[in-house]
Amino acid sequence: MQLAGSSTRELDEESASWLRRLVSAASAERQVAERELHDRLLRIALAEVRRRSASTPVTGPELDDVAHQAASDAMLAILAKLAEFRGESRFITWAYRFVILEVSSKLGRHYWRNPPVALDAAQWERLPDRLGLDPHQYAEAAGILAEVRHVVDTELTDHQRRIFIAIVVDGIPLNALAEKLDLQRNAIYKVIFDARRKIRRALVANGYLDEPEAGQR
Amino acid sequence: MNERETLERFLRTDPRDVGCSEAVAMLHVYVDLIAAGQNAADRYPGVAAHLAACGPCGDDFAGLLAAVTSEQPET
Predict the structure, then answer these.
(1) Could A93 and B28 be called an inter-chain contact, meaning their C-beta atoms sit closer than 8 Å?
(2) Residue A97: its chain B contacts at CB < 8 A?
(3) Rounded Cα distance, A78 and A96, in Å
(4) Which positions in chain A touch B21 (Cβ < 8 Å)?
(5) Ranges of each domain in chain A
(6) Residue A6: pLDDT above 60?
(7) A6, B26 contact by CB (below 8 A)
């Protein structure tokens, strides 16, 4: 996994203005800028919780509370990290990233208050649906899905198996599982990434799938 | 798409995939490129590969892009 091509550019006028006002020695100017930024963060947070409302059990005024908390927490994080802003993007885009991630994280935490499925439920009968198969394909897919389950049972480590079943078989949102297991989102993703490669290799070796094309694993 | 193709697509991994941490760290840069009409995926193929494969990061990307474009003047 490799990241390439990061760059630094000169600040645009609006970004420079935000930075100047947010660190201003004049408290009145600084407070106005902070209020303005908080208002914008809150507007974005409210829009974001509504955009995600179909995929969260949180509803109504509680959804607005999440947005208010996210805006406040994002505001604190932004002010604490102003020195880390390197001008790679517009300031406001950098700032909005904080509030979007706060909304994402807070909604992930709420999942466990009333989870539709328990951890380790292992609802294998739901796998065809989770993979997006049409009902008329279920019978045809039975053999290959039984092989997937066999590979999961015999070739994944205990940790890989638990994560794979939670995310793929039981459909627990990745953010929610990360919160539950006190792991970083990236750690969960890497486990699933490696499990997918392992399962694919086994299915290819056993003749269920074709060899991957160049550039894919 | 038959069941093999569906499973194939689900199990396919892209070696360029940078993972959640690096994709999230670059999210604001990536979104600004798109908002400016540039080809962010060409410039950051590893981020593009990740956002296409990771549901939560893809959702964060969609949210940030929606936030930024909601403030752009209509052309």
Answers:
(1) yes
(2) 24, 27-28, 31, 64
(3) 9
(4) 184, 186
(5) 13-113, 124-205
(6) no
(7) yes
What is the CA A193 to chain-centroid distance, rounded? 14
Contacts of A46 (CB under 8 A, 6+ apart): A64, A67
Please give, rounded to a whole number of angstroms, the shortest distance from the CA of B75 to a CA of chain A. 20
Verify whether the Cβ–Cβ distance B15 to A200 is below 8 Å: no
- Classified by CATH at the fold level, domain A13-113 comes out as Rna Polymerase Sigma Factor; Chain: A (1.10.1740)
Q: Which residue has the tokens 């959804």?
A: A63
List the domain range (segments joined by +) for residue B31: 15-69
For the packed helices A91-110 and A174-181, what is the interaxial angle rounded to 10 degrees?
70
pLDDT digits (tens, 9 = 90+) for A81-109: 999 999 999 999 999 999 999 999 999 88
Exposed / middle / buried, residue A4 (Cβ in 10 Å: 0-12, 13-18, 19+): exposed
Contact A104 B63 (CB under 8 A): yes
Q: What's the pTM?
A: 0.86
Q: Could you name the CATH architecture of A124-205?
A: Orthogonal Bundle (1.10)
Q: Report the domain count for chain B.
A: 1
**Cβ–Cβ of A184/B7 closer than 8 Å?**
no
ipTM score: 0.92
Tokens matching residue B22: 């690096």
A-B CB pairs within 8 A amount to 145
